[in-house]
Every structure is written in C-alpha cells, then in structure tokens.
Fold this protein.
Amino acid sequence: MTSISHAERRLIMLEEPILAINFKAYYPYSFGRKALELARAAEKAARETGVSIILIPPYTELRTISESIELPVFAQHVDPVEPGAHTGWIPLEAVLEAGAIGVLLNHSEHRLKLADLSHLLEKARAKGLHTLVCSDTPRTSAAAAALKPDLLAIEPPELIGTGIPVSRAKPEVITETLSEVHKINPQLPVLAGAGITSGEDVAAAIRLGAKGVLVASAIVKAKDSYEKIVEMASAMQPKQ
Amino acid sequence: MTSISHAERRLIMLEEPILAINFKAYYPYSFGRKALELARAAEKAARETGVSIILIPPYTELRTISESIELPVFAQHVDPVEPGAHTGWIPLEAVLEAGAIGVLLNHSEHRLKLADLSHLLEKARAKGLHTLVCSDTPRTSAAAAALKPDLLAIEPPELIGTGIPVSRAKPEVITETLSEVHKINPQLPVLAGAGITSGEDVAAAIRLGAKGVLVASAIVKAKDSYEKIVEMASAMQPKQ
Amino acid sequence: MTSISHAERRLIMLEEPILAINFKAYYPYSFGRKALELARAAEKAARETGVSIILIPPYTELRTISESIELPVFAQHVDPVEPGAHTGWIPLEAVLEAGAIGVLLNHSEHRLKLADLSHLLEKARAKGLHTLVCSDTPRTSAAAAALKPDLLAIEPPELIGTGIPVSRAKPEVITETLSEVHKINPQLPVLAGAGITSGEDVAAAIRLGAKGVLVASAIVKAKDSYEKIVEMASAMQPKQ
Amino acid sequence: MTSISHAERRLIMLEEPILAINFKAYYPYSFGRKALELARAAEKAARETGVSIILIPPYTELRTISESIELPVFAQHVDPVEPGAHTGWIPLEAVLEAGAIGVLLNHSEHRLKLADLSHLLEKARAKGLHTLVCSDTPRTSAAAAALKPDLLAIEPPELIGTGIPVSRAKPEVITETLSEVHKINPQLPVLAGAGITSGEDVAAAIRLGAKGVLVASAIVKAKDSYEKIVEMASAMQPKQ
C-alpha cells in the first residue's frame, strides 16, 4: 500500500458497509505465506464487490501485509503501555510504524480494563489510528460507546466460533445494542460478529441495522477464502 | 451488626452525604485489632455526626467487622468468577456470606476489564449488593455510568495517596465528571476521591457537587482516626 | 485454636502423613456456616485417626476457622504485594493476622509467576508461615523444589475435579516427580492431588511414596464430609 | 538471512561469548527504519569482532530483520497459547513463521507463570527454537535451570536501566547464580544483564564466569550503536 496515503486509506475504510476480517492466530492460516494469500484474496474481492474490507492480521504479519496489499490494515490489539522498557509488549507506536491504520481493541479474547481501553482510544485518536472496539452485551456496548471509538462490533462471546450467527440466533442482541448505543453516541457504526458463516447471516445483520460484520474463522479457515469473502461482501448490497 | 436487617442497612447507607473509608492493605492499620478499632471509631463518628459511613476492609476482616459494627460494610473487590473450583479467588457470594452489603469495584489499584465490570454489576444487583465503582477521568466515568452502579467515585490515580486533593487541585475533573455522568445517568451520586486529607478538602468536594468522598490513608493511617473522621464528616454539613 | 501456640501447631502439622483439604470456592460448601461445619468434621476426624489435617478455607473464612478449630489453617493464596495501597489484594501479612499458619501457593487455579513464587516463599519463611506449593509436571516440580517450599503437591491439572485419581491413572507422574524433586531437594515431602475421591486412591498415593494428599471437591462437596475424611485419613495408615 | 539454514544459524549462535541485544520498545529506536539500522550495525560489529550477537526486536520487526540481517533473531516473548482463536496473542508458531530462531522468555518486564514457562520451554525445544530465560536471583535461576533452557540471563530487576552494572555493583549475584545453577544444570551458559553500559562492565561479567551479556538501552539508545556494540563485543575477548 505504498502508493496511497494514510488519509486516502481512511476514506476507503470508512465507507460502509464494512467487512472486517480478524485473522486471529490460526496455524497455518494466519501467518506467513498463507496470511498473505488471504490478504490478496480479500483485496481482489474488495475490488470486485466495492465493499470496504479491513484486514486484521497478527503483529508479526502487519508490515508485510500493509506494504503488499491495498486495503486498510488494523492491528488485533495494542498493549496499554507507552514506548520504553517493555520487553515483548506492543505499544500503539509499534503497529503504526508497521503500517497499521487502525486497531481492534477489547476483543473477547483480549479484553481490556475499562481505564486502559479509554486511554488507548484517546491515544489512537491523537495518533490518527482508527479504532474498532468489541463488546459483549447491549450494556457494555453503551459503555464502550461513551468512550467514542470509530467503530463498534457487538459479539456475544458464547457464539464466537460456533457457526451460530448472532444475526439469526440472537437478533435482539443487535437491535438492543443499536438502541442503547445510539442513545449515547448516535453516529457510531455498529458491526455484528460471532458465528457469522454465510452471506445470509451477513444479510440478516445488515437488515437489523448493522453497518457491516466482523468475521474470523469462517473466512480465515475457509476452503476457498476468496469465494467466502465474495459471498459475504455481496450480501451487503453495497452502493457501488 | 446482627440486630438490623440488610434492608435497614441499605436505608442507612444511601442517605447522602457519604464518607466511604477504604482500609486498603496497610500494615498494621488495615488488619486485625487495628482494623476493628478503626471501624469502632467510624461507628462512633457516624453516630455523632449523622453522616453515612461505609467501611471497606480487606476480605479477611469482613466478617468480624460486619458482625461487630453497626455500619454498612463493603468488600474492596470481588473476582469475576462464579462459585466453584477457584482456589484463592473471591466470588461475590463469598463477601455476601461474610456480611458485606456492598462492593467497591474497579479501584485504580484493582482495575477490572469492561466486560467483567459490567457482569459483576449485574450480578451484584441480582444478589442485592450495593456497588461503588471507581473511575479515573470524566470519560471513563461516563462509560461507568452507563453500567448503572449505585455509586461512582472519581479518583484521578495520579493524586491518590499524594495529599493533593482532587477537589482543590483539579476541581474541573469533578465538575466535568458530574456533567458527563449526568448526561447518561442523571441520578447517579458521585463521590470524590484521591488526595483528600482534611475537612476543607471534603467541603470543597461537596461544594462542587460531590455527594461524598472516598478516603483511605488520610483516615486509616491518621494519628487519631476518630478525630479525622469527625473532621471530614462534619465538613459535609449533614441534615441531622 | 486459642489454646496452643504457633510453635505447637507447626509440630502437629509437620507430622506425616498429611491430608490437606482445599475448600476452594464452592457455594454454599466453602463459606460461612457450611465451611465451619466442614472444619469441625475435619477436627473430629483428625482426633480419631491421628492424621494431620490442614484446612485451606477462603480468605473470608480464615479468622473464624482458625479461632474455632484446633487444626492448622492455611490460606489458599497470597498476592505478591507488600502491605500498603493495594485495594482488594491480600498480602501475606493479612492471612497471618487472620490466624493462618501457612499458605498454599501456585495452585493450578491460581498460578504464580516464577519470580513472585520465589519471593513469596522467602517471605513466608521469614514470617514463619508454612508453605505448600502446587506443580503440574515432574519438571515444574523440580523447579519448585529448588525454591525450597515446606511441602509440594503434584497435581496434573487435567485430572483436577475429574474423579480420575492421579495415583491410579498416572502413577508415573507421582514417581517421576518424587525422583526429580529428590535430586534437588531430598527431604521435601510430596503430596499427591487431582482426582482423588476414595481411600483407595489415597492408599495408592501413599504406596507410591507420597506423604499425603491434597483433596478438594471429594471432601468439600461430599454428602457426608466427616465420613469421607475418615475414609481418606484411615487409608493413610498413620503411625498412631 | 535467506542464504543460510536454521541449522547453520544455530551453530553461529551457540558459540560463546554472546552479546544479546534486547531492542525492547523504545521509540523510535526499536521500530521500523531505526530498528533495521541497529540490526545492520550489529551485523557489521559481529563480522568485525567475531562475537556472536543475538538480535531481539519487537514482534512487528521480526520478519524484516530476520530476512535482511545475517544474525540470529530471537523474539522478545511468546504467549502461552496454542495457535487458534487468540486475537492479539502471539503463539510460538507466529515468531517461528516470522523467522525467529529463538525466544527470550521471562524477562523482568514480562514474567511468566512457572507452569507456562516450563511448558513454553518444552514446546520451543520440540519446535527447534532456542531459548534464553531471564531470572532475578540465584534461587530463581536455580529453578529456571531445572527447566533446561538453552541460555540463562541473570538480571537483578532493580538495576535494569540504571547504568549501575550488575557485574560491578553486585558481582556476588553473578557468582552465586553460577554456583546455584551449575549444581542443577552444569552446562547451562549464564549471561549477565542489568545496568551494563560499557566494555568494562562486560569484561567484569566475563571475568566472573558469565558467557556473555544481555544489553538493552545502553546499545539501543546509544548515540552510536555500532561503536557501543564494538566496545562491548571487544571486551569479551573472543577466540577469533
């Protein structure tokens, strides 16, 4: 992504609907050559469908993917530390240097303390990094909304990785989240996550008011990731 | 506190203004005989001034103090676990059994993950425990307010234990917190904490709109804890 | 346990074989009246069988049990902090004040960092608290032995709470642990834990060279805890 | 480092003495272009002095440095998780994929639980990754030695970053560590760390029996990192 500026990437990214792909730490899918292939598949699908796709690879893949692929790249997390003597910790500056233009925070597999989440969101804003915050219930979503992230993803943890889609098994979690969140932060786009494995699940989420989806294993571990991404992106019916 | 019921203690407690005493883990002050003496001093001061005093001793002192003293007793924390195979962890049920009628959560020395804080607040409500949540900035206070605790205490961590009172050094932290919190949760009583060492500091907090204070070392390590409590309680000008 | 001194309790305790009862945090078994009943049952069984029984209740029950029962009481854990501004954390001094004469450290449900474990063991020695350290494999047992605890308990975590006794399902874990540990620390008594539910399981552990057992749910949640304790204690064939 | 195999890198690396450079997370020194410059300076110094130099950059720099520089590269840490659904965590497989041939574990800024440290060391061995374990005292060093790492570094945390060299301020920490470690694991090479800022400090460590040093800020934040590396490497008097 050497040919376009950060400012341009921001423009691409914030066009809804959004398909955010969390690579997690699957082996071998999330690392090395496999991760790059997945990123290329997403790039191709983004071009063809016009949907905004965010790539969220592990720390170790951030630079290679952000330098090779013309899609916005987010880190999966950053640690609540300032640069300095912090062996094995990743301050926000590290992912910025590696080419990330945003960061996922508070994923159910990497929850943050409230005070740290708040501090990291302020720091990300100050440094020009986009933020996507995960939450687990309508109420924590409301609390997260008060912290003013750029994007929120509601993911009931009990459905993550199950193939039981939140958008169909628990539609009320999405609608209540939208209702609670928008009382506090009316413009905040909300993505749906957890158990989403098909275009139908995506379409259901969009119909409920979600501005996109956060997906992991259904794409990352798919037999054909490119086809799965196209299936999901197409279900968002973007204004091309 | 064997002679009055939980319901009665609730009534006592929620009368504002409130002086909440966090015993922390000072040695020897916070433990054993010393802790009981401190609790007795608070009981005497509460009777004389009419101010509601909440005692917040370590886990190991909860039962003795709640059985011996006629004041509401809160735990300093509870762990985000359900009862079961959790060696060395304290579920909410443990402090309830030991006589606590409330719990302090998210103190700056014991921050909780947003999801855990939200879950513990729901559980405390369901089990009839009062909740006092600490926060560090106006923004995290707003987020905490969305989680509907019974009481909130704003404590800028950089002032805790310094003797520099938030109510005088950073009055805007209190007023902004009140403003942000009440947009989301208009009835939530806000206490002020951090650096409060005198009746004047307390009075300043009350004038700014705080419904009380959360104090630790200034009382716990005072030469004469009773006098210090009376000084602070008197500065709240309660409706006796 | 007001009538005998700490020194006397030590003597009682270090007589092998040892039956250590970890109350964990079961509800209602581990708390309040139920916890005290369990402790009394253990006291009676200890008198009748002559076996040394160590009680390991939650923090909130330490004082009541150590004041009411004539058996050695250990804490389930202590936090690696010095006394001071540590809201909701329990320094070693807290459990000492509450009547504990020892502490369980590094249970599989509450693992410690190597440096903290080492530091806490030194501190416990300096303060006169007995120590019982848990470990999960022969190799970590060897490492733990280098830190010179008073007692070690080998507990393969995958068997904890299963009812599949380490002493019968994985006897080689016990014998290899004894072999590795005694190369480094020849006098260290090793207890066996995990999945032990009957006198037969206890007897098997003793035959393999264990100096006792660490038991939780099989006793704590037993229909008749007293009978279960007697069954296990009797299986140790103490030199009365 | 595309031209030589992992097996060859191992040979280079295990030749003592060793200068291990922990990049930590200093900004801008530890990241991006600056990190690569530092790595190149080390490469040049290694060629000129014949000393084995290990580079230990942040996760985000692992691949670039291991692909560009002909020196062994270690990760600063790996998380105790298996590959899978672990957003923002780095399993050992991730750093292996990124070109690391070893891993630093249990640094004082990133301590591990004893059981996790033991498990990660076994896993590293099984996967062919070298291991360098940090410890803080002679006793924890003995415990760590029982876990059979490839290299050990003794670093009294109170000296890290101070410029007060362990080798001169606390020589007995090094000699006692050697003595304790070699009782348990006679062949284990021990490096010295903490406060080392000059060739003299390095020479003092070598004279005490250390097989090398672990250095961070003194090199990473040096005005001229190349000169500092040469100064330290030269002080090791390698058998060229």
Summary: Chain C has a mean pLDDT of 92. The radius of gyration of chain C is 16 Å. Chain C touches chain D at residues 106, 108, 111-118, 122, 135-137, 139-140, 142-148, 184 (CB under 8 Å). The longest strand of chain C covers residues 130-135.
